[in-house]
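G., the chain you wanted modeled:
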Amino acid sequence: MIAVSKLSPRLSAGVRSVLKLSLREIRWREHRWQFFIGLVFTLLTLSFFPRGQSFQFADLHEGDIYLGEQIISPFTFSINKTAEEYEHDQQLARESVYPVFDRRDSTAALQARRLQNFLTALESVLDSISPDSLKARRLHDIFSEHHTTLASAGATVLLQGLKRYPLSPKDFFKQLTRITRDLHSLGILNVERTALPAYVTKVSLRQGAREMVEDLSGLITSEARNNAVLQKLREIENIKDPTVTLGYQILIAFLGPNLFYEQAETDLRLRETLQRVPRGRGTVLQYEKILARHEKITREHLQKLKSLEAEKVQQRLSEGAGRWFLPLVGKFLIIALALTVLGAYLALRHDDLYTDLSKFFLIALILALVLFLAHLAHRFEAPDYLIPMALAPMLLTIFFGAQVGFVGTVTLSLMLGSLHGN
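Predicted structure as tokens:
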């Protein structure tokens, strides 16, 4: 340790003042905002500490030669998968769950009956002995009752079908009924393709107690229904474009989906499948060697050690609140003690910085920024030299002077040491 007498006169005087300070001399109400900023900073820094592991193996890196004592498993535990492995297995599990659709034949039958009633009404008008002008008005009325419109070309097709077009209205109506039956037998989905995940190539069709898996490409999505209707109409022999237009107009009005997406059932199956994805990919037995002295550290070694630390944490949590609460208190006290050094120095030697909340907050923000970057580097297993340790001293020195930069560096070093362990 550095003796107080070896420090600069002003700094040593500040340290002596701190040691002689009595709690009764502190005016707590005047420092409430500084304490609040310090508390928020402490809690924020506490959240940066690694969870589910200790610092026992924090200094081990892939590719290094291990020089410590041989590591033996104290108990049997599972080797946890890496985040990438676990996410890959979860994605495979998602792809194994097919979206569930309910085939409702009653809906298809209802649509077919509505179409048949509509065509029967048209046929009764065409078979009547009324003049064409009256027939045209009645045809328009029938179309209006079914919430669709009849173009003049469509009226011409219906009224003069036997004279000008090879396909008679009766044969045309039969073809419309057949097309409706064919498309419903294939299956029309009530959702667009974009409503399903991109990886979906098969769906599960449920009809009563039966359930079967079908290729999505063999079904008709809602946006593909119109093209399917046009294709079926153009396949009719001796059909002309005006007849195709009329048939398209009629079928689009009456042809609806008969396969309905069961979102709740699909989500339930997906959750159950994801819950069954194991987090472990192997087992280390009790007294099994994990890492020997002078052995090259591999990724597999590191994963076993991380799994060992995670299992130790779980065991501590299961033993009672005291086993995990005391380490948490210890981390809190370390951060608070380091921050107290900086706060006391500012209060005693730089009262202008301490009382100015904006400057005091800026100092805390600079330290929190470096701690956050260190947390990211540790979380993504980046090399330690990527931590911008010099950033805080530079900014503190530029803004507030060399002495503040030095004390801030000491405070930051204590926090980084506790944050990264070894």
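Strands lie at 71-72, 77-80, 100-103, 202-207, 210-215, 259-261, 280-284, 289-291.

Shout if anything looks off.
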